[in-house]
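Final report, closing paragraph on structural work. Over the funding period we assembled a curated collection of sequence-structure pairs, and we close with a single example.
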Amino acid sequence: MAPILVAKNLSKSYQMGEIRVDALKDVDFEIYKGEFIVILGPSGSGKSTLLNMIGGMDQVSAGELYYKGNPLHTADLKKLTLFRRHTVGFVFQFYNLMPNLNTYENISLATEIAEDPLSIETVLEEVGLSDRAQHFPSQLSGGQQQRVALARAIAKNPDILLCDEPTGALDFQTSIQVLKLLKRFCENYEKTVIIITHNAGIAKMAHRVFYIKDGQLTHIDHNENPVPPEAVSW
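Its predicted structure, as stored:
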């Protein structure tokens, strides 16, 4: 099976006055359809930079990045926008919901621009929020808001779901619920899920773990028997 994402000597640098900051240096990897990937590293290691480039939110400084054989490293801003719109779903630590829209309307923002969206009703049922469809964010708990954000990303039916510390602002029990939903989306829809985190416990449920340190991919671990979300140690 051919990989859906390929990186070759992928690098990202920023110029801050006279100082050049190398946020990512010569990263190589292949990622396949249906994989559950965790990118693990401390704050400032470059994992968010890597996620931003995979998601088409940041342009490559050097190296190559391909999605299904199509080069993202040479794509202009318009092509990257279309890539994000049709291919990628995003889940962030903070929910980024529109406060003046209810749950259903927040999710519909994503489905209206998607090429092949899932049913909003079906997704709401999967995340356990069918009875909160008409509630506004201010009427929801933090965990419920994160599930709305997750439903919004899933409803696009993206090939790749990118998650930036999706449990970082949640308590233990709510974190487990969110991780179960992510795992279910990966398995039931054969989608690629990539999570960045500094929590080593979450890494145990991944098919593969990418370790990032000082902007470099130091090694990759394979989990032959990933643990279920409820078995994650914190």
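Helices lie at 47-54, 77-87, 103-111, 120-126, 142-155, 172-189, 200-203. The chain has one domain: 35-61+87-231. We thank the funder for supporting this effort.
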